[in-house]
Structure formats: C-alpha cells, structure tokens
Amino acid sequence: MSKEEAIEVMAVVLETLPNAMFRVSVE
Q1: Strands, E, within 1-27: which ranges?
Q2: Burial degree of 12 (CB within 10 A; 0-12, 13-18, 19+)
Q3: CA 16 to chain CA mean position, Å
C-alpha cells in the first residue's frame, strides 16, 4: 500500500467513525 493510499483510507475511516457514533447515539 502506497503512502497516498494509506492517507485515503485514514480519511475515509475518520469520516465514517463520527457518522457511526452519531447513528448509534441516535438509536
């Protein structure tokens, strides 16, 4: 995995986590 790919994956994870937390707290 190249450095750029790793950064992209991290960005996606960081975007997804708050959404997942929000969904759980709403339910």
Answers
A1: none
A2: exposed
A3: 3
Counted residue by residue, the chain has a size of 27
Share of the chain above pLDDT 70, in %: 96
- The tokens for 18 are 């708050």
Distance of CA 18 to the CA centre of its chain: 7
User: Which of 1-5's residues contact partners 24+ apart within 8 Å by CB, and which partners?
Assistant: none
Residue recorded with tokens 């975007």: 15
Q: How confident is the model at residue 4 (pLDDT cuts 50, 70, 90)?
A: very high
